[in-house]
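Below is our example:
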Amino acid sequence: MPDKSGPRANDGITANQVRLIGADGEQVGVVSIERAMQAADAVGLDLVEVSPNADPPVCKILDFGKYKYEAQKKANEARKRQKTFDVKEIKMRPNIDTHDYDVKMRSLVKFIEEGDKVKITIRFRGRELAHPEIGSRLLEKVVADTDEIAKVEAMAKMEGRQMIMVIAPR
């Protein structure tokens, strides 16, 4: 009955000698696996290998179902607490008007304040491609305007007809 997910229990333990921890948490010492199984049966609980890499392996007498439930609850709680980063994208053109720029900057600031990374894409069309320095100046202006709340994560670089830069919250 060895379970592939989680620690080994009862008959799944392969070591001959184990360091046994009793049901009340006090250390019994190094005993044979048979004696450890008998001790677990005597109190009606399972023998669970909590530290398989130790020499000898550490086994504890406890309720295996409850142990797995607690471990699953702990894993779910950790997953809930972890912060996921979304990458939002803002697209601009090199000769963007000041009002349009202000509107884009408001949404960029909102994304940064929510804790998301922002990918700023400047799309060049036709003859605009002959003047990439206009796009560079625009991205420098974005960096200057968001300097106190964001840092540059990926510097501006050309990818085909687009200039791309990524900024992240400070």
In short: The mean pLDDT is 89. Residues 26 and 130 are 76 Å apart (CA to CA). Helices lie at 33-43, 64-81, 98-113, 132-145.
